[in-house]
Amino acid sequence: MSGRVLVGVKRVIDYAVKIRVKPDNSGVVTDGVKHSMNPFCEIAVEEAVKLKEKKLVKEVVAVSCGPQQVQETIRTALAMGADRGIHVEVSGKDYESLGPLQVSKIMAALAKKEEAQLLILGKQAIDDDCNQTGQMTAALLDWPQGTFASEVTVEGEKLKVVREIDGGLETIKINLPAVLTADLRLNTPRYATLPNIMKAKKKKITQVKPSDLGVDLTSRLQVLRVDEPPQRQAGVKVETVDDLVSKLRECGRI
Amino acid sequence: MAGIHILRTSRLRSTLRYLSRFSSISLTARPTTLSVNLCSRFLSCSHRHQVHAGNDGQKVSPSAAPQRLSFSRLTQDDLAFFKKVLPGRTVTDPDLLESSNVDWLKSVKGSSEVLLRPETTEEVSQILSYCYSRNLAITPQGGNTGLVGGSVPVYDEIILSTAQMNKILGFDSVSGILSCQAGCVLENLSLYLEERDFIMPLDLGSKGSCQIGGNIATNAGGLRLLRYGSLRGTVLGLEVVLADGRVLDCLNKLRKDNTGYDLKQLFIGSEGTLGVITAVSILCPPKPKSVNVVFLGCESFQKLLQTFQLCKGMLGEILSAFEFLDSECMRLLNTHLKLANPISDCPFYIVIETSGSDSTHDEEKLHNFLEKAMTSSLVADGTVATEDAKMKTLWSMRERVTEALTHEGFTYKYDISLPVEQIYQLVTDMRSHLGTQAKSVVGYGHVGDGNVHLNVTSPAKDPALLASIEPFVYEWTAQRQGSISAEHGLGLKKRNCIYYSKGRPAVALMGDIKAMLDPKGILNPYKTLPDDVR
């Protein structure tokens, strides 16, 4: 196999940030909140760069959908070793309602346009936990899929994929072109080293509109309400074992 | 002649039982050669032959435990009084006392028989007033994370723990002034403040256990000193209980107050010897909106210093930390903690943190700095992190060195302040001086503040190695007008080394102040001031 790999990267709220719900319950607060690349997307980028280093692919293209800020995320992918980036411009209301169905349509269109041999995505995004985009894209392209991949080996024109499943590990062989979704144990993403960060500034990011790809962004979903999970009640500290026993009796536990 | 403090370990108990068949051993018996050997095993910093002082003309080891002063011993009446003032919070169970009697490094152990846990300043005042009248010695204890043996008793001093004094009294979000009791754990204060978009002005590796009262009594430095300054600037007020129980309320919450002598400065860094800090008001900086962490590798210490200068020039006001570690530290992190090097192997590594209010502005400055550093070959390799998880990982390369060292066996720790250019020379000279005697000799620390943590490891306690290190390290430091304890304080272990960094008239005046504030010397005896100032 020697060709182009497309890697989808998503800009999400950093996992360490405390999420706050907007006062009007329409969503979560994103303004001024720290964002970063979805951790599973990082693993996807790392895998793509590894394939390039093994000379199994010629070019790694990082793709992200969203407003201007997603270019930061694409730059991070470039700093990790991707060759160029594609920024699919989606903003405003369209961005708020952007979900796996629309993204998979965009990815499918790009995969065809770029004549990609392989599409690698993270298995799910940590903001919506959908775990759908990879699978939907494969269906739209009618390509085989290796999801929850924890190990990928190239065998000629086929891929051997070890998948993490409920019962353990499943090994499958799929034809190329294919879609892979990266699971946690696939690899450990590298630190972008300074020389690469400097080089990344000069790498190209092309802007594309969804309409250029013939994709309709209308959503079939409407978010009615977003609420915080119920507050956890504080525990009670007791001084002695006797206190503990009597308190347990009080609330009918014993 | 010195009575030896015999530590109650089960090994020693059985030995004493054996010996008691042949003679009567008491705690203040004249030491025989046998007990010298026993004690040298338990007293971490004592030299094999130099544990006892006196008429036999042998030299006293500077860190050896001093003779027990003539404080009263605990009686049942005393316990009854404490139990009345602190019901349920007077601990006498030996198992519970065990951890409070030993320091974090497990290098010194006391034999206190009672641990008190007051909740209010009033209770502390009653306790001290009583102990003053009864001539009972007290060791105030916060998080017990000190590294110089200052937070645990030497003999049977009563442990006064501030652990239950953990209430936040108030926070003004306009001025950023936080008031809290002395027993608040630093990390808890940080979490409280972060929810309100502020941060504590200090941060250290022991944040999960150390308490703000102890931090102030030590005048802790930490990782943010470069940016936010020392506690001497950020602490606005203190409430302190004096040795005789009087409550000194200097807990003002004003940024500026020039009415009379600034008493709180006496207590900051006094290591619990002038008064017990019970409440604090501290100025907190706003939480930075944009934080970046950079991990760099340099070929030489000279290049590291030049990088520091470039950093100050180009990053200026957004620089919030500049720490270094050497390749030996990296080796220990790789070997003992399985932490991989984020970049390629270099002789020196730097951790730089920037904190600012505008991420675009900060990142641009940072990128310009990094580009300059790379193109002028000051820096051989590096990486940048903007996400929390990655930043924590990069910081752990510096913060966990202390932990990695504990896996080597026994560590001799030195915390030295020197002119910045000379910091690493100490490590290099120590390495050639010790040769193969030591397992590892490492240097790391707050290079931005001119403070190096020199650590020498050996598989087990090695008195010969100690004899090679001390007084060489102190003399080396004194020759360059450095400080033999930059931020750790003097505690028990370094009290007699004070003369390497302070002249006799200054130390004598310290003694006068101690005598004035604590005439009976009941507050944390045997600590901070040298034995000859009593």
UniProtKB/TrEMBL annotation, chain A:
<dbReference type="InterPro" id="IPR014729">
    <property type="entry name" value="Rossmann-like_a/b/a_fold"/>
</dbReference>
<dbReference type="GO" id="GO:0005759">
    <property type="term" value="C:mitochondrial matrix"/>
</dbReference>
<comment type="subunit">
    <text>Heterodimer composed of ETFA and ETFB. Identified in a complex that contains ETFA, ETFB and ETFRF1. Interacts with ACADM.</text>
</comment>
<dbReference type="InterPro" id="IPR014730">
    <property type="entry name" value="ETF_a/b_N"/>
</dbReference>
<dbReference type="GO" id="GO:0045251">
    <property type="term" value="C:electron transfer flavoprotein complex"/>
</dbReference>
<keyword id="KW-0813">Transport</keyword>
<protein>
    <recommendedName>
        <fullName>Electron transfer flavoprotein subunit beta</fullName>
    </recommendedName>
</protein>
<dbReference type="InterPro" id="IPR000049">
    <property type="entry name" value="ET-Flavoprotein_bsu_CS"/>
</dbReference>
<comment type="similarity">
    <text>Belongs to the ETF beta-subunit/FixA family.</text>
</comment>
<comment type="subunit">
    <text>Heterodimer of an alpha and a beta subunit.</text>
</comment>
<dbReference type="InterPro" id="IPR012255">
    <property type="entry name" value="ETF_b"/>
</dbReference>
<feature type="domain" description="Electron transfer flavoprotein alpha/beta-subunit N-terminal">
    <location>
        <begin position="25"/>
        <end position="217"/>
    </location>
</feature>
<keyword id="KW-0496">Mitochondrion</keyword>
<keyword id="KW-0249">Electron transport</keyword>
<comment type="function">
    <text>The electron transfer flavoprotein serves as a specific electron acceptor for several dehydrogenases, including five acyl-CoA dehydrogenases, glutaryl-CoA and sarcosine dehydrogenase. It transfers the electrons to the main mitochondrial respiratory chain via ETF-ubiquinone oxidoreductase (ETF dehydrogenase).</text>
</comment>
<dbReference type="Pfam" id="PF01012">
    <property type="entry name" value="ETF"/>
</dbReference>
<dbReference type="GO" id="GO:0009063">
    <property type="term" value="P:amino acid catabolic process"/>
</dbReference>
<dbReference type="GO" id="GO:0033539">
    <property type="term" value="P:fatty acid beta-oxidation using acyl-CoA dehydrogenase"/>
</dbReference>
<comment type="function">
    <text>Heterodimeric electron transfer flavoprotein that accepts electrons from several mitochondrial dehydrogenases, including acyl-CoA dehydrogenases, glutaryl-CoA and sarcosine dehydrogenase. It transfers the electrons to the main mitochondrial respiratory chain via ETF-ubiquinone oxidoreductase. Required for normal mitochondrial fatty acid oxidation and normal amino acid metabolism. ETFB binds an AMP molecule that probably has a purely structural role.</text>
</comment>
<dbReference type="GO" id="GO:0009055">
    <property type="term" value="F:electron transfer activity"/>
</dbReference>
<dbReference type="InterPro" id="IPR033948">
    <property type="entry name" value="ETF_beta_N"/>
</dbReference>
